[in-house]
Amino acid sequence: MFHRWSIARRLFVANLLFVLVLTAVFGAFSVLEARDRAYEDAGSRMLAIATSIANNPLVLQAAATSDPSAILQPYALEVMKDADADFITIMAPDRTRWTHPRPEELGKPYIGTIEPALRGETFTEVTAGTLGPSVRTIVPVKDSGGTVKALVAAGITVRTVDTDVAERLGVIGGIALVVLFFGSIASWLLGRYLRSVTRGWGPEQLAQLFAYYESVLHSVREGVILIDTRGKAVMYNDQAAELLGLEPSEADRSPDDAPKLSDLPFDGSLRALFESGRPAHDEIHLTGSRILVVNQAPAVGPVPARSRQKPSVYGTVATIRDRTEIESLGTELETMKTLSDALRAQTHEHANRLHMIVSLLELGRTPQALEFATKDLELSQQLTDDMLASVDEPVMSALVMGKAAEAHERGVELVVRTSGSSGVRGLEIQDLVTILGNLLDNAIDAAASGEMPRRVELDVEAGAAAVEFTVRDSGPGIDPESIDDVLQYGYSTKSSQDDPRGAHGRGVGLALVRQAVQRLNGTMTISNPGGAQFHVVLPAPIPEEE
């Protein structure tokens, strides 16, 4: 049953027991202290009474007579009444009582200790007498020579002292009840607060929940990062660390030791999203080598039922998915589609040329047919030989051949110039296809939408230290103020009607080109010499052998 209790209930019961124990201890201590103080006060008061009587010359004078009781008894009764003492006993050194509250006790021996007083000392004791247990003080009465002639005992019964203590107990009990009441109220308020924060769960349940949370956090394929209101990454899982290039996070790290966003290696758009804390749904952000899909929402605390308070916001939670492989497959699919379209265009073009050759042969013009076929073959073979001699990569050559056929079909002239013979060995062919394919696609689209003559130029220079691609088009060019924007994911200057690939292809190509160039440690510059020009320099990974 105890294990089912919530933290709030356990704390309330523990705090209530603590207040009860504290009240009991405080009450017992106060009672003992009050009792000791009452006995001490009673002894001090009796000492004052006995001392004043012993200093009265009347006592010495009466002690020298034959019947001291006749003089001292009325005096002692009057002082006892005025001083509120239970008894005042004046006695001879041999214990014979001269005064007593009960007349029948006169002349009888005193019950109690007198030896210290006979030695001239004053002392206080608690002892039982004829009136019961009492607090009494015995003071010697000395003559001028220092001889003890009589003894004075002034006392108050324990019953009277206990009555005074009982009066004080009421005050002590009232204080204890006040402490208990306010302690219980404080425990209840604290328990109510903890119940709202922990949602009524017990520590075992919270420990189990934390174990589940740790397991889920480190087993999910998505990256998860929690950012508090101070701009600190208080927690992120292993997948987020891998996707964002962070150091693995320790599970027991204190939130105060969490790194700030400004100290983490985030790119501009991703950092701006995390710092803003705004909600985001399936937003695409490019890092140095990855394409990430990010969702972000505020981390909202629980709201008690029937409460009008707004829920507390503790920060934001962002989930991150890697879309790099999907985009790579999309790029490869787009490349295959381009090659397929190029083959279709070439098939259509070669069918027309074949019909032309057949017609010339039927007309008996064999030399013209041979010349026509040879010239067409020379142009295609020359382009193929130049590409293979320069970049030494059949896929790149096929890509350029396909783009040339596509450009011809759309009324655009694609001019290819190559130089060098170092090749592109060691460079990722997928990245090269992404760079060159997207640049040629954009250039062909820009030239096709421009004025005549429509022209795209591709310069390929494969040197010993680097491979350079320069793509120029005869289109309207790029606004200098938009150069940084065109490299952002999702930004496009074309509408869906202008883009033959539809809305799916807009605002993606140049962002992927920038990412591929960065991945290959290259550089890309954009200029407008009569049209848009993109110049890409990729360092050669394999140096030329001497």
Automatic annotation (TrEMBL):
Its EC number is 2.7.13.3. Keywords: Cell membrane, Kinase, Membrane, Phosphoprotein, Transferase, Transmembrane, Transmembrane helix, Two-component regulatory system. Pfam families: HATPase_c, sCache_3_2. InterPro entries: 2C_sensor_his_kinase, HATPase_dom, His_kinase_dom, PAS, sCache_3. It is found in: Cell membrane. It is a multi-pass membrane protein. One of its GO terms (molecular function) is kinase activity. The chain crosses the membrane at residues 169-190. It catalyses: ATP + protein L-histidine = ADP + protein N-phospho-L-histidine. The keyword Iron does not apply. Residues 209-250 form the PAS domain. The keyword Phosphoprotein applies. Residues 323-542 form the Histidine kinase domain. It is an enzyme of class 2 (transferase). PROSITE patterns: HIS_KIN, PAS. This is histidine kinase. It comes from Paenarthrobacter aromaticivorans. The lineage of its organism: Bacteria, Bacillati, Actinomycetota, Actinomycetes, Micrococcales.
